[in-house]
Write a structure and sequence with these properties.
- The complex is a heterodimer of chains A (511) and B (513).
- Chain A has 511 residues and is mostly beta strands.
- Chain A folds into 3 domains: 311 residues, no CATH class; 61 residues, no CATH class; 107 residues, Sandwich (Tumour Suppressor Smad4).
- Helices cover 8% and strands 22% of the residues of chain A.
- In chain A, the strands form 5 sheets. In chain A, strands 8-5-4-3-2-10 form a 6-stranded antiparallel β-sheet, with helices on one face. Chain A has a 6-stranded antiparallel β-sheet with strand order 16-15-25-24-21-22, with no helix packed on it. A 5-stranded antiparallel β-sheet of chain A has the order 1-11-9-6-7, with no helix packed on it.
- In chain A, a hairpin with a 4-residue loop joins strand 6 and strand 7.
- In chain A, helix 2 packs antiparallel against helix 3.
- Chain B is of the alpha/beta class.
- In chain B, 33% of the residues lie in helices and 20% in strands.
- The longest helix of chain B has 17 residues.
- Classes of the chains: A mainly beta (511), B alpha/beta (513).
- At the A-B interface, strand 15 of A face helix 4, helix 8 and helix 9 of B.
């Protein structure tokens, strides 16, 4: 979460035209989404904006857009949630899934998923969805859902769809270009109230009558240069933009050839047909079949420099549990297992880098040292059946008990010494360092190594200054370890290095 | 309890290439084999009249008896994976804190090395012990032999009867009846020891002495190991756990002991011995599931002493099961009634011995030995310690310990053993009221007769007409019954007074037979 983030680089954008040419389609997640007050539900996920009708279950008080100056729409209180509306929940869940599967352009996939899901579901509330595609937008309208561009007089309703749903409700799904002006999505609510000029939903689920997608960014806080924040959120430095200019200056190039419009600057060459931000009246370029309504030309507005907004900051919704980017992608349910499964020690997973060892299996499938009589895991006799050698993950082979009571479980190779971390074998990751602090100074920087070989534990003195001594269980005399010559540790063996001492004990390999 | 399928065998490699002389599906599925079927599978057949497998003390005692009854070594084979008859036994006693120098819980006259029981261990040990066995158990606690004493005397007897000549190493896979009489015992010799993967022993008599199918660690212990991959902090008393004592020697710690049997008393004694000898500060918490605070039992003649949580009894069984009224009673009962009798004489108990009773008294007085009554709910590692949640009689308790030593001894079901499961499934063997192999008074496995007999002795036959089968003395009685039955069938010579005396003198002189 708190990984350091490169400070945002906001390229100095000199002119809208350049940006429009470079961007082509405004990144969906950087358009401002303003929510108008109402009782329906507005959901914004990466790549998707959904407005769904709420069947009046809980009378949510119409709220004025009591937005602060921070841009994020506050979450509605939980009481306004349409409790128990299962279909709505499924719809939101579907959008989440699609969004999680591909947030950049989930539009086509959303079409397919909805087409697959809707015939199987009844009583789905009216909704309107806009989702990003590579070239433009994917719209889906159901029931009373409406998508309109008020400034251009464009209006799409579900009734314009080719084929209604099986239950007779009108349904439309269509790929369209980005309209050059604000797009208003609603589920049929007649909210006349416009959004608060500062309203901006970055992500989340909030109540509202409609969502107004304006391809220009919404001003966030009055632009004060924000210091880079080392967190998951990136702040962009926004140029101060006149609020009035916001809605009407989308740097969007619709694909249609632009009819000459007097006050327009030069057409912009780009992936799509050039189009000027100020030209609003050429709706015929869009393939939604709405006849272009003549509209009084809007006087040219000062062009706001388009800004590459960073991904939306995280917003917290109290209505709906996690934000879309926190939801794990849907996955297959785990298989129902009825048969007895061999235990995990044998699970040969790909990429399992734990060291393997060849051993015998007990009757219950636990991996064991071939020399033991009883399974270390379950206690069953291992001698009752033919020994079959199998490779599996090696269990810890024993325990070092140091003279101060510290215990070390031997599940890896160790390098013992005063400064074990400086050894090449430790630095390369082959051995784990085991620091042996000795007041007498008798422990060398790299004193000895303990290696696991098969089911055996082997101790080697790696050229220590003062040597290593060992005594097997019951032996009174110490034996000196010859440097470089490995000795197998047997249970009960005591090893002395400098002023320190440890004993080796093991549940494996006899008694 | 399902009797229908053999427990799944994980060990079979998924696609091992069929080796020469291996079992095939037809053999595995057929209850009664013909010689021809084995010949087709390429499995060589070795003829020997009497085969015993298991190879522990049960096999040893039976073979000993038959050797003394004049059966030559060539007529018997012991199929075993063990190096010596007591290997498995010594392993278990050693790890459960009865090393060779400590005393077993066995009667002085239960001498697996000597079928006569005379001279007993106490007589051999010295005059001091003569007095002990004379006044026990009224003025003295029962005498019991040292483990090492039993092993060394068995070793002597093993060479005297030329036991090693009869041993064939390997794993017994199954016993099946033979068409035309007798049995096939399929042995898997160690890799490289034979040219075929299996060898079949064709015999008229088979003796099953596989002993305990195994221990059964409690599910919570197994779960703890699997989840946390920690084999060190929670241990079973029947596995090597010397590191516990080693670690407590180095640094003071708190140990939770679970269980109230003889192993618990042995582990406690070891902990307190260490505490006393090395001046350690070990704190002990003892968890009893059932707390016995007074003498208990179903009737005035069947009472067992008890105090401080423990149930006391000199030996595993009331002494009357070996020759007293309880032996008669069990012999005459069947079914439910017998199961009830077994339940009455069963239950966890431990022998009274002054040394550790004194230790525990001292521990209670000084506060380093505490008792909790309840059951463990969960265990999880917390740093270097184990956090144990216990539902006790005082409500739920939570404690952290350096170690948990589980001294509950559970035996696995006989079906857990592959050969026993195969006997149940394919050879007509059945279960007795206690759920183990059903044997008759002559220790013949009921339902398996086929022109010969399968005998069984040891723990797998617990619940039969003779109780106490899983003790030294029980194994000897089983061997005697089996030998008598074989003598009747003409396999061995009658052990009359003359033979018995001459054989005893041979034993005394350690003369090889």
């Amino acid at each position: 979460m708190a990984s350091p983030v490169v400070p945002p680089v906001v390229p100095p954008v000199p002119a809208a035209a350049v940006a429009a040419a470079a961007v082509g389609v405004p990144p969906f997640d950087q358009v401002g989404v303003a929510v108008t007050p109402g009782e329906d539900l507005v959901v914004r996920l990466p790549g998707i904006v959904l407005v769904a009708g709420v069947q009046a279950t809980a009378p949510a008080p119409a709220r004025s857009s009591g937005l602060g100056g921070w841009g994020a729409a506050p979450a509605a209180p939980a009481s306004a949630a349409p409790a128990g509306d299962r279909r709505l929940g499924e719809l939101v869940g579907l959008c989440r899934r699609v969004s999680a599967a591909g947030r950049r352009a989930p539009g086509r996939r959303l079409h397919e998923e909805l087409r697959a899901w809707l015939p199987t579901a009844t009583d789905v509330p009216s909704f309107a969805v806009a989702a990003a595609t590579e070239e433009g937008l994917a719209l889906v309208l159901l029931g009373d859902g409406v998508a309109e561009v008020p400034e251009l007089g464009l209006r799409l309703t579900a009734g314009q769809g080719e084929e209604p749903l099986s239950d007779g409700r009108p349904y439309l799904d269509r790929l369209v270009d980005w309209p050059p002006a604000a797009l208003r999505l609603s589920a049929g609510a007649k909210g006349d109230m416009g959004p608060h000029p500062l309203a901006d939903l970055e992500a989340g689920v909030v109540p509202g009558a409609a969502a107004v997608l304006s391809p220009a960014p919404v001003p966030a806080t009055p632009a004060a240069p924000a210091p880079p924040v080392p967190a998951g959120t990136v702040l962009a430095q926004l140029p101060p933009t006149p609020v009035a200019a916001r809605v009407t200056t989308p740097p969007v190039p619709p694909p249609a050839p632009a009819p000459p419009v007097p006050p327009a600057p030069a057409p912009v060459p780009g992936g799509h047909a050039a189009h000027d931000h100020a030209a609003h009246d050429h709706a015929h370029g869009h393939d939604h079949g709405v006849p272009a309504a003549p509209e009084p030309p809007v006087p040219p507005q000062p062009v706001a420099p388009p800004v590459q907004l960073p991904p939306p900051a995280r917003s917290v919704s109290f209505l709906d549990p996690p934000a879309a980017d926190e939801v794990e992608p849907a996955r297959e349910p785990l298989p129902i297992v009825t048969d007895e499964q061999p235990p995990a020690a044998l699970a040969q997973e790909e990429g399992d880098t734990r060291p393997k060892v060849k051993g015998i299996l007990c009757k219950n499938g636990h991996l064991n040292d071939p020399r033991v009589l009883f399974c270390a895991q379950c206690g069953i006799r291992t001698t009752q059946q033919t020994a079959v050698f199998v490779e599996g993950v090696r269990p810890p082979l024993g325990l070092l008990v140091f003279d101060n009571g510290a215990t070390v479980s031997l599940d890896a190779d160790y390098l013992l010494g005063r400064e074990p971390e400086t050894d090449e074998r430790v630095r390369s990751g082959g051995h784990r360092p085991l620091l042996v602090v000795d007041q007498t100074g008798g422990v060398s920087r790299h004193h000895a190594e303990i290696r696991l070989e098969g089911w055996d534990v082997v101790l080697t003195d790696i050229g220590s200054a003062n040597g290593t001594l060992f005594a097997r269980r019951g032996e009174l005399a110490w034996t000196s370890l010859i440097p470089g010559q490995p000795v197998q540790l047997t249970p009960g063996m005591t090893v002395r290095m400098g002023g320190r001492q440890f004993a080796f004990e093991s549940p494996h390999g006899g008694y | 309890m399902s009797e229908s399928t053999i427990a799944p065998q994980h060990a079979q490699p998924p696609s091992a290439p069929p080796q020469r002389g291996d079992l095939n599906d037809r053999l595995i599925a057929t209850d009664v084999w013909t010689d021809q079927m084995l010949a087709e599978a390429g499995i060589p057949i070795i003829d020997v009249p009497f085969v015993t497998f298991g190879g522990g003390i049960g096999s040893f005692v039976t073979v000993d008896y038959l050797r003394i009854c004049g059966v030559p070594t060539s007529a018997m084979r012991v199929l075993t994976p063990l190096k010596t008859p007591w290997e498995s036994y010594e392993y278990l006693t050693t790890v459960s804190q009865i090393p060779r120098t400590e005393r077993l819980r066995s009667d002085s006259a239960s001498t697996p090395d000597n079928i006569w029981g005379f001279p007993s261990y106490a007589l051999r040990e010295g005059p001091k012990q003569w007095w002990n066995v004379f006044v026990e158990p009224i003025f003295k606690r029962y005498y019991t032999p040292k483990a090492g004493h039993a092993f060394t005397s068995m070793e002597r007897e093993m060479y005297r009867i030329r036991y090693p000549e009869m041993v064939v190493h390997g794993q017994v896979r199954m016993v099946r009846r033979r068409a035309g009489g007798g049995y096939f015992t399929v042995l898997t010799p160690p890799e490289g020891a034979a040219s075929t993967r299996r060898i079949a022993y064709r015999s008229q008599w088979v003796h099953v002495a596989v002993g305990y199918p195994g221990l059964k660690f409690l599910p919570d212990l197994q779960r703890y190991r699997q989840e946390h991959n920690d084999f060190a902090k929670v241990v079973n008393a029947y596995e090597p756990h010397e590191h516990v004592y080693e670690r407590l020697h180095k640094r003071p710690g708190t140990v939770l002991i679970r269980g109230g049997g003889i192993v618990a008393s042995r582990v406690l004694q070891r902990l307190i011995d260490d505490r006393d000898q090395r001046g350690l500060q070990t704190q002990i918490v003892h968890l009893f599931r059932t707390y016995v605070d007074k003498a208990h039992g179903p009737g005035i003649f069947k009472r067992r002493r008890g105090a401080d949580g423990w149930a006391y009894q000199g030996f595993n069984y009331p002494k009357s099961v070996w020759g007293g009224q309880l032996k008669q009673q069990v012999r005459k009962t069947h079914g439910e009634e017998r199961a009830r009798l077994y339940k009455e004489m069963g239950g966890t108990n431990t022998p009274l011995r002054n040394d550790w009773l004194e230790q525990l008294d001292r521990g209670r007085r000084e506060g380093w030995y505490r008792v909790v009554i309840g059951q463990i709910d969960t265990m999880r590692p917390v740093g270097d310690l184990v956090e144990v949640a216990v539902s006790s009689d005082q409500g739920p308790q939570l404690g952290t310990f350096d170690f948990v030593i589980d001294c509950t001894g559970l035996e696995a079901d006989i079906r857990e053993h592959r050969v026993l499961a195969d006997l149940l499934d394919h050879s007509g063997a059945g279960r007795n009221p206690v759920g183990r192999l059903d044997v008759g008074t002559n220790f013949e496995l009921l339902g398996t007769q086929n022109g010969g007999k399968i005998y069984a002795s040891g723990s797998a036959t617990l619940g039969g007409p003779f109780p106490g089968v899983d003790t030294f003395f029980g194994l000897q009685i089983a061997a005697q019954e089996i030998a008598d039955d074989l003598i009747k069938q003409g396999f061995a010579q009658k052990l009359g007074p003359g033979r018995s005396t001459s054989q005893w003198w041979k034993w005394v002189r350690n003369k090889q037979i």
